[in-house]
Design a protein that fits this description.
It contains eleven helices and 19 strands. The protein is globular and about 85 Å long. It has a seven-stranded mixed β-sheet with strand order 14-15-16-11-9-17-18, sandwiched between helices. The longest helix has 17 residues. The protein folds into two domains: about 140 residues, Aldehyde Dehydrogenase, Chain A, domain 1; about 190 residues, Aldehyde Dehydrogenase, Chain A, domain 2. The chain has about 375 residues and is of the alpha/beta class. It starts with a strand and ends with a strand.
Length: about 375
């Protein structure tokens, strides 16, 4: 560095990535591994130590993972306590005590919006927070080439793990004048019947039904499905238990379907976690998109499925839903292998981080770089 006209000062500069410190990963009950590993590994690869707080009803899967991490760390010469388990019980919950502790600097959370909003409030106390919360995911039906194949795919999406995926569709927006399918007009009533038949067909399938639906985790989720008519509107399909040959005592349930009019906003403006879907009768595709966009921006959404054969409408739906930071998946067919609620680990952004469904995305670089900071040091050295 020049000093005056002739003299100079020589400085040696070093730059170091510095981890933020102790991190807390708060697991959920229904997907304890999938939703927790990104945050846990994000903490470890950026040099932070990690404290894992599993849901009281889903401790074992994470205990096994923490044990393996500790074994691997010890084998390679690291302190095995770089990752530890902090299990609690329903009678003595530790989440808030741990989250508010002054030594905790980074928090990953998956769970309800109410708890997630509390975790996000800790940003005001200097915490770095990553959340995935609840959302209301949409299906927009306009036109399609294959009615049966489309309904098969949607029935698979709503049935997979009994609708307990954060990416599962809930609100189906269908124009009152019906849709186009295979070049033919399909009335609104026939469209709804096709969806109902596809769901019932999957649920009753002797091989696919029980394996796709799985079990219902919580008794409250089962009650919500069994009492779906209390939401209001017309009950189109009643939730039913599905016998599992290998687990006769399993808590199972096929999806319930409720039909409401678009004007009855109070009946479909909240997340109905589990096997409950709502058919919303709209005046047009444009109204379907408008409601889906507004609700996603206000309440949050992680996914949106849309069916249209017109390129201009695809562009229109994409542009509208982008403003609510919701990705759109178009025209999927058949009962798998791909459904709207399945995200690829390294090529899909799981949650956009741009609406109330969550403030982070698993495959955004921001998910990693906010866990550490770069610090630059300078030393004066002799010339």
């Amino acid at each position: 560095k020049p000093v005056g006209k002739e003299d100079t000062v020589k400085l040696e500069k070093t730059y170091k990535p510095v981890p933020k410190g102790l991190s807390l990963v708060i697991g959920c009950a229904t997907f304890p591994v999938w939703n927790s590993m990104p945050g846990l590994f994000g903490d470890l690869i950026t040099g932070n130590t990690a404290l894992f707080k599993p849901h009281p009803e889903s401790v074992l899967p994470l205990a096994l993972i923490i044990a393996e991490i500790q074994k691997a760390a010890k084998k390679h010469g690291y302190n095995p306590l770089i990752a530890e388990l902090a299990a609690d019980t329903q009678d003595h919950l530790l989440t808030k005590d741990l989250a508010e502790h002054d030594d905790v600097h980074v928090i990953d959370f998956t769970g309800s919006s109410q708890m997630g909003e509390y975790i996000e409030s800790l940003i005001n106390r200097g915490k770095t927070v990553f959340t995935e919360k609840a959302g209301i995911n949409s299906v927009i039906l306009d036109s399609m080439d294959d009615l049966k194949g489309s309904m098969q795919n949607l029935s698979f999406a709503v049935s997979l793990y009994s609708g307990q995926m954060c990416t599962a569709p809930q609100n189906f927006y269908i124009p009152e004048n019906g849709i186009q399918a295979g070049g033919e007009h399909i009335s609104y009533e026939d469209t709804v019947d096709a969806l109902k038949e596809a769901i019932s067909g999957l649920a009753s399938h002797p091989k696919m039904g029980h394996n796709v639906l799985g079990a219902v985790h919580d008794e409250k989720t089962l009650e919500r499905a069994n009492n779906a008519e209390s939401i209001g509107g017309r009950l189109i399909r009643k939730a039913e238990p599905i016998a599992h040959p290998d687990f006769p005592n399993a808590r199972t349930c096929s999806p319930a379907i409720i039909e409401v009019d678009a004007k009855d906003r109070d009946k479909y403006e909240q997340e109905l976690f589990g096997p409950v879907i709502v058919v919303v009768k709209t005046k047009s595709t444009e109204e379907s998109v408008s409601i889906a966009k507004e609700l996603s921006g206000r309440k949050g959404a992680i996914t949106c499925a849309a069916y249209t054969t017109e390129d201009k409408k695809m562009d229109y739906i994409e542009q509208e839903m982008e403003e609510a930071f919701v990705p759109v998946t178009f025209n999927l067919l058949g009962p798998g292998p791909v459904a709207v609620n399945q995200n690829e680990s390294f090529s899909d952004f799981h949650v956009s981080g741009g609406n109330p469904a969550g403030n982070a995305s698993f495959t955004d670089p921001d998910f990693i770089v906010r866990r550490f900071r770069w610090i630059g040091h300078k030393r004066r050295v002799e010339k």
